[in-house]
Structure formats: structure tokens, C-alpha cells
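The instructor's notes for this session suggest beginning with a concrete chain rather than abstract definitions. Hand out the sequence below and ask the class to guess, before any prediction is shown, which regions might be ordered.
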Amino acid sequence: MLADVGPLRRSAAFRRLWVGTTISSIGGSLTNFAVILQIYRLTHSSFAVGALGLAQVVPLLAVGLLAGSLTDAFDRRRLTLVTGTLMSLVPAVLAGQAFAGLHVVWLLYGLVAVQSAVGAIDWPARAALVPSLVPAHERTAALALTRFSFQLVLVVGPALAGVIAAAPHLGLPVCYLADAVSYLAALYGISRLPALPPQRAARPGLRAAAEGARFIRRSQPLAGAFLADLNATLFGLPVALFPAINQARFGGSPRTLGLFMAAIGAGGLVSAGLSGPLRHLVRPGRAMLIAVAIWGAAFAGFALARPLWLTLTLLAAAGAADVFTVVFRGAILQNVTPEPLRGRVMAADYVVGAGGAQLGNLEAGTLAALTTPAISALTGGLATVAGAMILAVALPGFYRYRWTGDADGPRTPDQENPENVVSDGEPG
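After discussion, reveal the predicted structure:
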């Protein structure tokens, strides 16, 4: 039942990457919390908080898909060292504006946009490192451990950020400063990796990006995984509504707001810690759609919940479902994608995951401004459930996709021809 920690024991390179990324991600969650709270304090508007999504998604879309061709063209270790260094400068500037007492909302949007653009290069390159550091039969376990790290960050980061933000002698500037310092851990872990040049260098540019897009379009398992994730994040991730709902129901304390975000991480941490059975998974598409439906239903319940304990329980249930969604999607990507295209597919994964989440924040904040935050969260959750049902019918090759064992185990006909699957175990 427990998570398989074999990749951490047997691969020192993966262990250093995992530890460094975990520490820097905790710092990143401090900045995410602080920016949301600072903008809400300056504007008292859920729409303004949701507009953070627009500030992030525009550079993400402009850079993201082309970033994959960079990942497939250059040494991934050197690329992540450069991007990690650039990303550490953003929270340093955020700390400076907070210490200076500036009240300039457009500056916050601009800094978030810069970080989003650099992150669109950094994340695919970093994700593409993992298959080179662990053997094929341990990739599902490595993905589960990566998700465990993410959920740990969701628990520790927001809770710690809430305490720091509420402390009279600390506050938001210290959140930003801690993030800038935390990048040192990630840069150390990456610097100790071996050189990872591309197996078959692709000339970066639009043609290489289009090649990756064509591969995704032809593969129902890949296309279905991306659409299922987009459905979940676009409609069922109302983080932009958290400050307003916290203000209306629980008085607006930063500590309570931190519990909102930490509850999602706590639920995910439990499910990630019990991810051992996932190594036996044979139908990831079907399982992913079920997890997406649970995710949406939990947020619909959150919209209606009044007691704090029920609110946090429903957010934890959403976090638990999210872990399975991400691991299933990642397993499909790792098993279906050939190595020369891995960077471009990972870039598309990042664009869909991060871009969908930011568009979802914009959608949730806009609808909340037109109606109420509760109505926005409720309709988004119900739309997510409906979307999962539609995808099950519209993409049978994704819903019925299956494999036997891990990536280096016996391959089913579905794996040999993933783009043409039309029925159980039979190639189209």
C-alpha cells in the first residue's frame, strides 16, 4: 500500500533532484500565497486575483510549446541551471517591492508574468530529466514520489505562509525572501547531475513544436489525458475564490486561508503516501476520468459547505483525487512518448496543466464577479463532472487504453499502437 521509495534509494541523482526540487517548491508556494493575498489586500476583488491567471497564461502559451523544442535540442542539465537561476530573481524582486511598501498591482502582475515565461521552459526540462535518472520499470514509482513531494509542498507551504504572513514582524516580504533563498537547494541538486545531452537533437522552433503537437493529436491516450486535465483545471480549481470565501465565511484570517490550501495538499499527501497499488494499474484512462469526476464533485461540495471542518474535508478529498489524476496522466505520457519527443510532450503537459489552472482562476474570478463566489465554485465543480462523462464517450481510445505492467514490462497491443486504439486490447 505504501509508496515505493526504491528510486530514492537506488538513484543518488534522482534523490538530489527530488530533495532540491521539494525545498525550492516549498519556497515557491510561499510566493504563490503571498501574491494572492497581497493583490486581494490591495484590491479586495476576486476578479483581480483571478486576473493573475491571465498574467501567467499569456506568457505561458507564448513560450510553452516552443520550450519543448529547446528541451529536446540542448543539454537538459545546463538548461535547468539557467532557468532556475533566472527564476530565483523574481521572488527577490518581489521581496524588494514588499519591503519598500509599494502598492503597485501592475508590478505584481508583471513579475508573475516573467516567472511564468521562464517556468514554461524550466518545468518541461526538469520533468524530462526523470526518465534519464531512473530505469523504465521504476518510472511510475518516481512519478508517484514526485507527486508526493508536490503534495507535501501543498501542506507545508501554505500553512507556513499563513503563519509568516500573519506574524507582525515577518509578513509577506519574508515569504518572498524565503522563496528566493530556497532556489539554492534546487540549483545544487541540478548541478550534481550528469550531463544529459539530447539523444537526437531537434532544431528548436515552430517546426519541431508542430511535430510534437501532431504526435499528441494522433494519440487518443495522450489527447484524452490532456483534455481530462484541462477539464479539471479550467472548471474545477477555484483557488481565486478562496480569499473571498474565507472572508465571507471565516472572517478572512490568513491562517484560515492557509488551511484552505494546505487541506488540498493534506488529502493528496495521504493518497500519494498510499500509492503503492498504482504500479499494478492497467487502465489509467478510465481511472483518470473517475478521479477527475471526484475532484469536481468535491469542489461542488466545497461551494455549499459551511462548517470549517467540512470545508477542509472536501478540499482534502479533492487533493486526494488530484494525486491519482496527475500520476495516471504522467504514466500515460511516459509510456506512450518516445524519448526524442519527450521534451515537447512534457512542454505541452505543462502548458495544459499550468495554463488550464490559470485560465480556471480567471474563469472562476470572472463568474464570481458576475454572480457570487459560491455559485462560481458550484457550477465549476458540476461542469468538471459532466466533462469527465463526455470525454469517456467521445474518446474511447483514451477510456479503454490499457497496459500490462510497467514501461519495460510486456506491452499490450494498445501500447504498440496508442494512436489507433478503438477497443479493449485490439489495435484499430
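Then share the key points. The radius of gyration is 20 Å. Confidence is low (pLDDT under 50) at residues 404-428.
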